[in-house]
Amino acid sequence: MNEITLNRIVSFAALVLIAFPVGIACIILGFGMGDTPCILCWQERTAMVLVSLIALFIMRYGLKPKYIGALILTAVYGLWAGYRHSSNHIIRDIGQGFGPAIFGVHTYVWVIVVFAIILLFAGALLLLQGDKLSDKPAPWSLFNKVTINTFLVIIAFNIVQAFTQTGPFPFIGQSDPVRMSFNSDNIIWSTGNWPSPSKLSVRGAYTIEKPDFAAMTSDMATKMNSDKSVSASQQLSLPAAIEGVVTGISYQASSGLYALVTSDNWVYFLSTDLNTILAQVKIDAAFSTEISNLAGVAFDGDNSVIVTADHKSYARVAYDPNAKIANYYANFMAGTDGVKELRRGRFETTRAKFNYIGDIGYDADKQEYLMVTLPVAARNNLVVTRMSANDLKLNSEAVIGFDGNTLPQVTGIALDSTNIYLLSRSGEQVLVMNRDNQVVEAINLTATSNPQAMALVNGQLAVVNAKEGQNSISFYAL
Length: 478
What we know:
Order of helices and strands: HHHEEHHEEEEEEEEEEEEEEEEEEEEEE
Shape: elongated
Largest sheet: 5 strands, mixed
Oligomer: single chain
Low-confidence stretches: none
Strand order of the largest sheet: 3-21-20-19-18
Helix content: 25-40%
Strand content: 25-35%
Radius of gyration: 30 Å
């Protein structure tokens, strides 16, 4: 490809990029329709301007390696910025998003398309060069002058928009900006999006600390006022061979089986007297759906259970004396015969999306799985989520009514035909919740130690006192 042809192609590409994505966003959407870029939009637009500027350098000085490298690096940054922005919104319900949509697609998604085209264009341009770059500049033409003047005009509009709507340094823009306006009463200059050293994370505002069940402590601020206390009628030690801290327990009366899960990703099936481990497997956290830091287990059949991690990924497994662990190499890291995996997947929630959970329960009457969020400062939610046991999709979510100043850490769930019992690890209480999601009573537990899990067993609540190598169960009569 000769210098003149290369020059015209690059000039045309620069003109298209600055006139359409950048020009339309600024002049038509901005000055014409009142659309103000958010802080992420400005990053994407800046990357497009820089790519256009690099194209002007290629147009003026030739296709030099340093310009190619700068263009690719800038385009990759722009592509990342588009993915970063779109990841917040692209999985919302159909049609939902921020800002105006063009042909049904929001502008931050178009960013991905634009930078993908830029990278493809750069690759095609290099291929057409053959074995040697045409790095000599072509004669300056009228078309070049049109391109660079268009660039300067659109940059001028962007400068006006940026400095009036966003402000000079240290103002860096808004996450949810108001309409564009030149009325000083309506303009917002903000520094609120500067990150603080204590909150630096690659997940940004979505950084939620994973629960450490072994390290959980009591917090009397979460304790609900109650004069009702109950003492343990019986306490049994669990087998010392159980590895890790027990974080979930379930009991199935029809088969007389107990199921336990631990923080070390082990699943155990135990006999009715809790003395014998009938089978055990260690869930492979890295295979397919990532399942680690097991938080709960619930029988949903005579021999089958659902096992969930703190982040709501799940596995359905079943006790089957005929199952051979050799047939489940991809599912289990270690263990014994007697357990098979039925299914693996992820629960998808709405209100609970940015919260971890501490347990799972099963409502046989409604054929629903129940989970309760673990509140944290960033997402101070106490939400009960109900998932269909038929298709494992969301049935409902509701905020739990709780009469207290600080929300509790719920790490155990048990159900009967009337009530739902929630184990408050932080308050060392059993909270009685009705079917309208209101906590109507609190029962103080005595002589507990790190109560991490709970099951309903023959009319009694079996509460796990979790301690590695010394896990035990206390039974409380309702």
